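Lecture 7, part 2: worked example. A protein chain together with adenosine-5'-diphosphate.
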Amino acid sequence: MLKEGETGVKDGPGGPALLEESKSAGVPLEGGRSDGEPAPGAGGLPSEVPSRPGGGWLRRLLGRVWSSPPGSPSPDTPAPEPGSPLPVVEFRHVSKVFGEGTRQESVALRDINFCIQDVPGRGEFICIIGPSGCGKSTLLNLIAGFSTHLPPTTGEMYVYGQPITGPGRDRGMIFQKYSSYPHRTVLRNVTFGLEMHRRELGLSRREMDDWAREWIHRVHLDGNERKYPHELSGGMQQRVAIARTLALKPRIILMDEPFSALDEPTRYDMQDLIVELWQEQQATVFMVTHSIAEACYLGDRVWIFSPAPGTIAKEIRDLPLPTEPALVQQSRPEFEEVVREVTREFQRIVTEKLLEQKRAQ
Ligand code: ADP
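Predicted complex, written out as structure tokens:
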């Protein structure tokens, strides 16, 4: 049932860039980073107003803003058309070595090659699993264009055909935690990215608030607009982070273990939410997770990384579509068998690599 995919694509084009937060930075910085780069979550421009019954007034109100192509007014971000023939993300022979030439040298990634094409009207969901320290977060941070990780040690990286030289609004990142501004209400957390781009979007405060309320509704947090993050559960806080990121309609969504701090039932709820929202967003998603079941449920593809230095050891496709609620589908014997199969493959890759490393010593 498992089929090996193609990750070693060597040719093809590839474009740009996000509001940034280092995982180690903990609480995001208000108003952008001290180095002048923007803050988390504001990784893209909305291209359309989400539809829901009664949402026509909002569509009219914001139509002028969201009729512009996604990511368009950024000088460093060409406007990729949905269904663009350019690959969404392309990596060619990308390696990343930290502390090169020092005693702390660490090869995080080695010779990463892939080419993700746009799937018009749908997008694609790529889940990344692998042992701790094998470079999964490094890969996301490189795609995000974070200054802590650029440039790669070798290789070329493109988003929509443009070299990745920094963050851009076409990319949005959702972290495991610490992704809300503690001194801002839910509403103000969600308007954050809009405020940063307020001038170019030409939005009034009222319009930003209306749009943020729409997103608060979409992540099922109605009634919590005036609360502060510390008044919310972990799952609710992640919903805020998701709303803030998706309100800017990034074409590429990067998620770094977004649910790993949550309890099991909340995790299933969040997986259901992601399925619901992703189908509307039609974005390309890269999600790091340590849950193989989560990867099999959400992913169109699962990449298994080898132990460090990280490489894409295997790509698995033909995974079951998330057609039922997460808890229901993941309890089915046929789904459990898929998870067992992927787990066996994961274990095989890790064991082989460790034995290889032992023999080389
Ligand atoms: P994973 O997400 O798979 O757990 P990471 O990508 O976080 O792995 O890290 C891969 C390797 O790169 C680790 O050895 C880690 O210590 C190192 N590393 C990651 N980020 C940095 C950094 N900013 N500076 C130095 N080393 C780093």
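Residues 1-78 have pLDDT under 50 and may be disordered. The longest strand covers residues 106-116. Keep this in mind for problem set question 3.
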